[in-house]
């Protein structure tokens, strides 16, 4: 059985680590480079870095920040935000990232997924999905709609359909973020997490809502996720990564222990 991964997420705005609730009210809370180094030293399995306003502002990723973060950590490092071409992907990989995360750009140009997978391998391509719970309809039969541009633009696309499509196009992983749960610390949205995880063959990362290690246990057991993305729970010092992993291990979840 593969170990379940614990992945801190660093949302960055104007070069600073930031955090909001349900994609709103973001406040700056620290330095992303220093924070990434601390999480690496604590035993994070991977780190995800999102430039949260790049797509909305129509600009490229901040490569200097990527280079600085990559110089401090020696675990897989995924970067997203403002990546809209294979050239952008190449630049991010050359700056030190191991994986590319595409979200809004993939929805607007699905061929970007297959182009990236062909150029760099599926293992490098992570498709981020921001989803919002909506009434079940003929157009949205799962009851979860894909939203882009940092939660600003609903797309009328069913989340389950899109998950299957990104797998077909060559994505190696899905990072599924519930806008409803994001930053609330009330737990992941397990319904859509398990629905997608059970219907695709690629790993699914649960994202949005972690406030206690039990939520991570639920994400990888009830939610069938391969990994749990975390932010507020560690950013504000409520739990450390070693404590989270010890809790998960005590609950019978296989995790990578580094101490």
From TrEMBL:
Pathway: Amino-acid biosynthesis; L-histidine biosynthesis; L-histidine from 5-phospho-alpha-D-ribose 1-diphosphate: step 5/9. Transmembrane segments: none annotated. It catalyses: 5-[(5-phospho-1-deoxy-D-ribulos-1-ylimino)methylamino]-1-(5-phospho-beta-D-ribosyl)imidazole-4-carboxamide + L-glutamine = D-erythro-1-(imidazol-4-yl)glycerol 3-phosphate + 5-amino-1-(5-phospho-beta-D-ribosyl)imidazole-4-carboxamide + L-glutamate + H(+). It comes from the Bacteria. It is found in: Cytoplasm. The keyword Metal-binding does not apply. It holds the Pfam family His_biosynth. The active site is at 11, 130. GO terms for biological process: L-histidine biosynthetic process. One of its GO terms (molecular function) is imidazoleglycerol-phosphate synthase activity. Keywords: Amino-acid biosynthesis, Cytoplasm, Histidine biosynthesis, Lyase. The keyword Cell inner membrane does not apply. It is an enzyme of class 4 (lyase). Its EC number is 4.3.2.10. GO terms for cellular component: cytoplasm. Coiled coil: none annotated. Belongs to the HisA/HisF family. NCBIfam families: hisF. Heterodimer of HisH and HisF. IGPS catalyzes the conversion of PRFAR and glutamine to IGP, AICAR and glutamate. The HisF subunit catalyzes the cyclization activity that produces IGP and AICAR from PRFAR using the ammonia provided by the HisH subunit. This is Imidazole glycerol phosphate synthase subunit HisF. It comes from Desulfonauticus submarinus.
């Amino acid at each position: 059985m593969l170990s379940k991964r614990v992945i801190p997420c660093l949302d960055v705005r104007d070069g600073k680590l930031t955090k909001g609730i349900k994609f709103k009210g973001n406040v700056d809370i620290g330095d992303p480079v220093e924070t990434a180094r601390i999480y690496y030293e604590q035993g994070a399995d991977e780190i995800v870095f999102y430039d949260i306003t790049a797509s909305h502002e129509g600009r490229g990723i901040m490569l200097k920040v990527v280079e600085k973060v990559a110089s401090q950590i020696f675990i897989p490092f995924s970067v997203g935000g403002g990546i809209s071409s294979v050239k952008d992907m190449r630049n991010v990989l050359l700056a030190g990232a191991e994986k590319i995360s595409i979200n809004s750009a993939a929805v607007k140009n699905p061929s970007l997924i297959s182009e990236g997978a062909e150029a760099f391998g599926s293992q490098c391509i992570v498709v981020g999905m921001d989803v919002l719970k909506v009434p079940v309809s003929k157009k949205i039969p799962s009851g979860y709609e894909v939203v882009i541009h940092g939660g600003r633009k609903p797309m009328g696309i069913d989340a389950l359909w899109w998950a299957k499509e990104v797998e077909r196009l060559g994505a190696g992983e899905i990072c599924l973020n519930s806008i409803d749960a994001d930053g609330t610390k009330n737990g992941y949205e397990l319904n859509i997490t398990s629905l997608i995880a059970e219907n695709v063959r690629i790993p699914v990362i649960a994202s949005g809502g972690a406030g206690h290690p039990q939520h991570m246990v639920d994400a990888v057991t009830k939610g069938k996720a391969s990994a749990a993305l975390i932010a507020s729970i560690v950013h504000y010092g409520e739990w450390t990564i070693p404590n989270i992993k010890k809790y998960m291990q005590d609950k019978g979840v296989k995790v990578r222990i580094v101490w």
